[in-house]
Design goal:
Largest sheet: none
Order of helices and strands: HH
Helix content: over 70%
Number of strands: 0
Distance between the termini: 48 Å
Strand content: under 5%
Mean pLDDT: 85
Number of domains: 1
Shape: rod-shaped
Structural class: mainly alpha
Radius of gyration: 22 Å
Number of helices: 2
Length: 75
Amino acid sequence: MKLQDIILIILTLIAIITAIWYLFGNSPTFEQAILVLILGLLITNVTKINVLESRFNLLEKSFCALAKDFKQYIH
């Protein structure tokens, strides 16, 4: 398991606990409960964007290599 996955699991658990705590009263305000949820979603999106960016970079490198191969066959 990666560190990112562990952080996401912890934030998800905190968001669920905060939502349940809000439902049963004597809890943080609604804005604070939403803030925890938004923070979890934001970190999830950043993690997914980083994964997609690294995959895109690999795809870009393979297309550059493919272009070189085609240029060798043309000349």
